[in-house]
Design goal:
Mean pLDDT: 89
Shape: elongated
Structural class: mainly alpha
Distance between the termini: 80 Å
Order of helices and strands: HH
Radius of gyration: 29 Å
Helix content: over 70%
Number of helices: 2
Largest sheet: none
Number of strands: 0
Low-confidence stretches: none
Length: 75
């Protein structure tokens, strides 16, 4: 019985290895189909994202100050 279990276990391992290999071959094939943006576009869009994040950070900070001041009058 142990020989059958060992053979079955080996078959499952081979099946898993083949599944992983097939998956990564598919990933490699799809990777080549991706259209990557130009360097300048990436730099410009990163700058826009950073500016928007900074803007909303400042807005939330000032809202915090305003609410803290308004709630201070309640006491």
């Amino acid at each position: 019985m142990t020989a059958e279990k060992t053979e079955k276990n080996q078959t499952q391992q081979n099946s898993f290895k083949q599944s992983v290999i097939t998956y990564f071959k598919g990933v490699k094939a799809e990777w080549g189909k991706v259209s990557w943006p130009e360097r300048q576009q990436v730099i410009a869009e990163t700058g826009i994202v950073l500016a928007v994040v900074a803007f909303f950070t400042i807005v939330v900070y000032f809202m915090d100050i305003i609410f803290k001041t308004l709630l201070g009058f309640i006491k």
